[in-house]
Write a sequence for this structure.
């Protein structure tokens, strides 16, 4: 991708963010809004610089919790999708329960997890896993079900085993859908980590936000929110890069088919 094409894609959202910040700054100045109600972007930036050292520990705690929960949630989602795909009866029996599990508010489930598993790391990881595994499972099942039927029939005709069909045909075809689920789960994982820290924690950005809420330090709460947004964007971007590396064959086949069409 050329620099010009990259800039053409990035400048609309970048310009929208800059415009929003300018309007925000003007509004807080013109209407003289108190900092404890809505701090200006300049005030938030000053507080971020001032609280940099104290925020490092909380940021690192949230990052570790997010990555651990996302990794376990992603693995759980892929394993569940594989099992349900291999055993159609289980899919028909359990898929409605998976959907039902997503209708339980995490903030209501949190106290139960604390009673069952205590205030330690396990209860917080379960919260993140519950947030992450569902979109990955649904996306992976959709991708596996969308495998090319012609290729499937061909591999069955030449005597391919069930395992060979899965690893050499179904899994590669499902990768675009799997990565769609991973991108959704990556952003959800940080939200899950913050909720888990609200429920039971003595460190992390969620815990830090609760402390600042009780002290009416809205500027510090906005600093924590900005860090969470930055984490979400970074994780999303990393998965996009990984997807481009893992699904190179799709781009190559698309380009080849376009070339063939142009030639005809």
């Amino acid at each position: 991708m050329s620099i010009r094409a990259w800039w053409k894609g990035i400048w609309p959202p970048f310009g929208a963010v800059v415009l929003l910040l300018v309007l925000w700054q003007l509004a807080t100045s013109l209407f003289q809004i108190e900092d404890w109600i809505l701090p200006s972007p300049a005030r938030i930036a000053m507080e971020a610089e001032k609280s940099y050292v104290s925020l490092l520990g909380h940021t690192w705690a949230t990052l570790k919790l997010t990555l651990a929960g996302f990794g376990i949630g992603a693995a759980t989602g892929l394993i569940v999708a594989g099992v349900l795909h291999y055993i159609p009866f289980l899919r028909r029996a359990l898929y409605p329960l998976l959907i039902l599990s997503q209708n339980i508010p995490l903030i209501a489930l949190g106290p139960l997890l604390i009673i069952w598993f205590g205030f330690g790391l396990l209860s917080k990881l379960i919260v993140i896993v519950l947030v992450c595994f569902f979109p990955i499972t649904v996306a992976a099942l959709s991708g596996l079900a969308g495998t090319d039927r012609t290729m499937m029939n061909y591999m069955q005709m030449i005597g391919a085993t069930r395992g060979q069909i899965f690893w050499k045909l179904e899994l590669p075809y499902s990768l675009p859908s799997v990565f769609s689920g991973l991108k959704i789960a990556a952003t959800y994982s940080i939200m899950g980590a913050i909720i888990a820290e609200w429920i039971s924690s003595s460190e992390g950005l969620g815990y830090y936000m609760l402390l600042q809420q009780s002290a009416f330090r809205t500027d510090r709460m906005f600093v924590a929110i900005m860090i969470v947004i930055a984490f979400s964007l970074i994780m999303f971007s990393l998965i996009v890069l990984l997807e481009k590396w893992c699904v190179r064959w799709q781009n190559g086949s698309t380009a080849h088919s376009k070339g063939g069409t142009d030639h005809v």
